[in-house]
Amino acid sequence: MRRELLPSRSLHPLLTAMVLIALSFSLPAADETVSLRFFEQGVAAAKAGDVGQAFYMFENSATIRPASGTLHNLGNAAWNQGRPGPAVRAWEQALWLDPRNTNAQTSLRYARHTGDLEEPDLRWYEVCSSWLPAGWWPWIAAGSFWCGASLLVLPAVFRQRRRDWFQAGAAACAAVFLLCLPALAGLNSRASLGFILPRETALRVTPTAEAQIITYLPSGLPARLQRVRGDYALIRTRYTSGWVNRDDLGLIGK
Q1: Nearest-CA neighbor of 115 among 21, 206, 196?
Q2: Which of 159, 190, 221 is the C-terminal boundary of a domain?
Q3: How far apart are CA 104 and CA 97, in angstroms?
Q4: What is the SS3 assignment for 16?
Q5: Is 38 inside a domain boundary?
Q6: Domain presence at residue 2
C-alpha cells in the first residue's frame, strides 16, 4: 500500500506567521483603495448635485481612512443638506488632522458667520495643541525625550568623554519635550469637545427620558462631554449644563 506523505506540523506556525505578515502589509493598502473608491464616488455625486449620496460616500471614506480633505468634503455635503451640526464637526475634525487646511478654516468661518454659530471656548493649552496635527505631538514628545536621554546616557555607556554639544543637545531636547506637555494636555482636553448634531436637542436635568427639559440646544453648538451614563451624556456649554442623548453629541476626537 502506498503511504501518503503528510505535511510536517512544524510548518504550520511558520506559514501562519507568513500569512499574518503579508496581511499586515496588504490590509492598509486595501483600506486605502476602498477609501479612495468611496471618495471618488462622493466627488462624482457632489458634482451631480446628489448631496445625500455624496455625504454617504464621504462618510464611508472617512470612516475607513480619515483624511483632512475627505472630512472637509463631508462637511460641505452636510452643510448643503442643511445640517450645520455634522458639517461643523466634520470641518473641526479636518482641522484636528491638519490645522493648515485653509478650506476647512474658510468653511467654518462662513458657517459661523451666516449661521450665527458659537466658536469653541478653547483654553490656552488647547490652542497650543491646535498648532500642529494631532498625531504629531506624541511623536515629537517621544522623539525629544529619547533623543535627550540618549545624549546623556550613551557617552557613559561607551566610555566617552561627555562633550559640550552632548549637553547642549540634551538641553534642547528637554526644552522641546517640556513644550510638548501643554499641547498633549490640550489634545486630551480637546478630545472631549463636541458639537450638537440634530437641529434641536433637548437638554435635560437628569439622564432619563421623563426628566424635565431645561432648554433646546441648536445644531452646531459646541459642548464639552463631562461623563456618560447609559444612553445619556452630561455636557457643559458656555452658559449651561445638563444631559442629552449621547448620539446627539459628535466629538471631534472620535
Answers
A1: 196
A2: 190
A3: 11
A4: helix
A5: yes
A6: no
